[in-house]
Design a protein that fits this description.
The protein has about 325 residues and is an all-alpha fold. It is built from 14 helices and no strands. Helices cover about 80% and strands about 0% of the residues. Helix 2 runs parallel beside helix 9 and helix 11 packs antiparallel against helix 12.
């Protein structure tokens, strides 16, 4: 319990610093937006590039894990999209962002530290695999659908053209393309450039959490509770259950792969989730959902670790 609290406490402290900075008028909302732009256009693409190039793809490629975790994440993504469109009658862009919050875990800042504490060195492999799934599958799918939703009213050809143009300027997808090219080519990144990428990537988490805290100041929760409850329930409960279900259906399931997948799936959504939402008018929902999910993930992670221990799936 205390080990998990030690991991989540710095996250809340960084969020609190952002909140107090704007509440104390140390920083303005315009300046906070500038920090958010830095994260979205500089730090986050560097984080994606680093995640895809830290380890050779052939060393971490585990088809069973990619298939099970990927299918479980896609199932929850599809469910979130369906609930938002068919039940809540919200636009496609809103549905895509809500589905993203339900299906993309905070693998780097919460999932990995918890998995490293429980499993040791295999956690680094699971981190790389999850980054592949999130950055090559879930995040691009959400951004493409959200961009399509923003082009309502135009013809199909015009919608596709405008969406392709917007996606071509999306910094996350640009970083994704660069990372994949480097990883596949096997060309080593020069030392000074690698250190620059690492410095920018290391700034993504703290800066994003600072922006989240500032976004929570005077946030009007009224009208957001339904969206927040759906996103948090989907991320902390449905996502782990979906991943577990797919793993149990697979032949010759590796217990270590299952354990790692569940620990990552129980983490809250990615820390830059509100910044994605902000691009499509859902920054407030994203910030509130991340705050609530991060708080309750302490419970879900603790319960999951306890159940894994009782099932004999944890190393001694």
């Amino acid at each position: 319990m205390l080990d998990i609290l030690a991991i989540t406490t710095p996250i809340f402290l960084l969020i609190a610093i952002g909140y107090l900075a704007i509440a104390g008028r140390i920083i303005t909302r315009e300046q906070v937006q500038g920090v958010g732009i830095f994260v979205m256009y500089c730090a986050l693409p560097a984080l994606v590039i680093r995640a895809l190039t830290q380890n050779p793809l052939e060393e971490v490629f585990t088809p069973q894990y990619l298939l099970a975790y990927g299918l479980g994440s896609l199932a929850v993504f599809g469910l979130g999209l369906l609930l938002t469109l068919a039940w809540q009658r919200q636009p496609l862009s809103n549905g895509a962002i809500q589905a993203l919050g339900m299906a993309a875990a905070n693998s780097g800042f919460i999932g990995y530290p918890v998995a490293a504490m429980v499993l040791g060195s295999p956690a680094a492999v699971f981190l790389a695999l999850n980054m592949l799934i999130e950055n090559l599958l879930i995040i691009p799918a959400a951004l493409i659908l959200a961009e399509l939703g923003n082009q309502s009213g135009a013809g199909l050809a015009e919608t596709l053209r405008q969406t392709a143009r917007r996606l071509g300027r999306n910094p996350v997808l640009i970083g994704l393309l660069i990372g994949v090219v480097i990883a596949v080519s096997g060309v080593p990144v020069p030392g000074p450039l690698a250190r620059t990428i690492d410095m920018l990537a290391s700034a993504a988490g703290p800066a994003a959490l600072f922006v989240i805290g500032a976004s929570l100041f005077r946030l009007q929760v009224k009208g957001l509770l339904g969206d927040v409850a759906q996103i948090v329930t989907g991320k902390l409960i449905l996502h782990p259950l979906a991943v577990l279900g797919v793993f149990l259906l697979m032949p010759e399931m590796d217990p270590t792969l299952l354990t790692g997948a569940l620990l990552f799936a129980c983490a809250p959504m990615i820390s830059v989730y509100p910044l994605f939402g902000q691009r499509f008018g859902m920054g407030g929902v994203g910030a509130a959902a991340l705050m609530v999910a991060t708080l309750f993930s302490f419970v879900t992670l603790s319960v999951t670790i306890g159940l894994l221990h009782l099932a004999g799936l944890l190393p001694p």
